[in-house]
Amino acid sequence: MKDLAFKRMEEKNIKKGNKNSEEELLWCEQFKEYISIKKGCQHPKGYCPYRKQCILYLSLKLKDF
User: Fold this and answer.
1) How far apart are CA 9 and CA 15, in angstroms?
2) Cα separation of 42 and 32, whole Å?
């Protein structure tokens, strides 16, 4: 299952013209898109039903800590 998700992520990087697969992207379940870990959650103050299990949001909170 993880291999399939990683393969899709690489395909999206190639389609976008981003051949640097080392950039870490995570799936945003609410907006159904891949987002860079460096950018973090795009809507940290808005409502998100997936907030408790969102790695993007948690990584943002850990940076603030």
Assistant:
1) 10
2) 13
Token pair for residue 47? 């409502």
* Chain segment 21-60, per-residue pLDDT in tens: 567 888 899 999 999 888 888 888 889 999 889 888 888 7
Which pTM does this prediction carry?
Answer: 0.56
Domain boundaries, the chain: 2-64
CA distance 51 to 57: 7
- Decide if pLDDT at 1 tops 50: no
Which burial class, exposed, middle or buried, applies to 58 when counting CB atoms under 10 A from its CB (0-12, 13-18, 19+)?
Answer: middle
Instruction: Tell me the two tokens of residue 45.
Output: 């103050």
